[in-house]
Amino acid sequence: MFNSYRENTLRYYPDRCINCKRCTQVCPHGVFAEGGDYAELVRPEACMECGACALNCPVQAIEVQSGVGCAWAMISAALRGKDMDAECSCGGGDGSCCQTPGAGTPRQE
Amino acid sequence: MKIPRYKRLEIEWKHFAVGDATCERCGKTGEALKGAIDELRREFAPAGVKINLTETLLDKTRIAESNEIRMNGVLIEDLLSASVATTDCPSCGTLAGESTCCRAIEIGNDQYEDIPVWAIRKAAYRALGVAPPELESGTGIRETIRITDSTITPANRLDHFLARWGWDRDGHRVAPGLYRLGNPSPESPVFASANYTLSFDALRSALKGTDAWIIVLDTKGINVWCAAGKGIFGTEELIRSILSVGLDSVVSHRKIIVPQLGAPGISWPEVMRRSGFNVEYGPVHVRDLPEYLKTGKATVEMRRVQFTLKDRLVLVPIELVHAALPMVAVAAILWFLAGPVAALAAVSVVLAGTVLFPGLLPLIPTADLSTKGFILGGVVALPFAVSFGNNPALPLWANALAAGSALLLIPAVTAYLALNFTGSTPYTSRTGVRKEIFRYVPAMAVMAALGIVAGIVLGVSRLLGVI
Questions:
Q1: Interface probe with B: pick from A1, A3, A4, most Cβ of B within 10 Å
Q2: Does residue A35 lie within any of the structural domains?
Q3: Average pLDDT of chain B, as a whole number
Q4: Do B260 and A25 touch (CB under 8 A)?
Q5: Are residues A75 and A49 both part of a single domain?
Q6: What is the pTM of this model?
Q7: Quick check: A44 contacting B, CB < 8 Å?
């Protein structure tokens, strides 16, 4: 109850993994860990769907429908009759999350 | 900007191709052309200049003309006072099935097999009849290399303070391009950054005592993480930057250190394939860079993003600034309609949603941000409910309505503000946020509507003299 974050769109195909370890380097939530012969999916529920692992996997062993989890952008897209998944990306331009409460995050400093 | 003599720039580019495949040097020239044209279009759009690119694919018989560029009919080598050479092109050789020589151009003492962005830009300026900026007076070799240091000045601090408060939101930019930090050599490391002052300043100050190159991507004044999510701190911009600053002629190695939180926008295999540079992901926080440079490896801890009290509190000013105007308006209206305590309730709910909520985030029960907001809002609503519901001059039903209005409205609004904090956290997935929206927004809407109806009933009753 009251946890909407137990499931996500992350899919991992370890049989394709060539153990380059890039996924373990890019994930900020330790979802993947270094294993013996291939990367291990250790914290799937912590995935925030940023897409870094899939984009940096040279053999497409990881799939995720990446996007920015920003309610403000999704709600305003829905209100304007647009696709709430396609619309949201953080930053820049009018009406995106980075212009709105909180989004000019200081995370990357 | 100087006024161009011509309003049109027709660029014709011919190159050898077999099916979809083209050779390496033409491929690189194509990238550079597209990058340069995008830049030129932006620069000359205010002057009303239209830029058009025509690409002609040549077959094997016309390979001598391959990689020829004309601007308004004039060959690029003539515009650049360059000469043409032919060099062995193994990549074309593979495509053509025989040993092949291809065009290269020579500018000064340097030979270019593929045409770099700066050369295309310079030629375009000449073709339009404008003096090229920065290039004309300088060496003409590449974009100017800028100089920076690790000092954070009082002016920088003021800029950071204003950025935190949302003042001139898009104005906190540094010029994109290549920077020299300290006294770097061709062996010195290269770091990528965003052209947001907070990002760039954090990087250069963390690298105090290190001689390095910093390549600043044009992220439109947005930090690395947000820009990566949007894809503008991304593969294309990184490749464009590497090519346009001529990084391969600045450093002898082929490695570029990119912040880990930039990874959602970057595909390292693609960057490697198209620029020749290998991307290495540095740690999440620049404070770990000295250790990372020493050991050459980021530890598991350095790779994890946290959302500490400090991380959350620096977001408070901007949250407050954005909520301030509606808050003052609503508080003023409530003051006239329902008195000062109701106005105080409006102020309290905004402070709860924008200050208390980020501050207390991990301490409030449940995982969902909306339910955390309902809980916090409920606590904030209690004293107001007690105050509104204890008017001895009013009948019981009116007291109940007044208290109920506070208990419905305050948690609903707090929960909505809390839900919107998802965009600021570094851990909420889109799948989860979508689930939260569908689960809780209807409840928020119903509660807020009932609360407003209760308030209206009370107001009308008072007007009609019922209470």
A1: A4
A2: yes
A3: 90
A4: yes
A5: no
A6: 0.72
A7: no
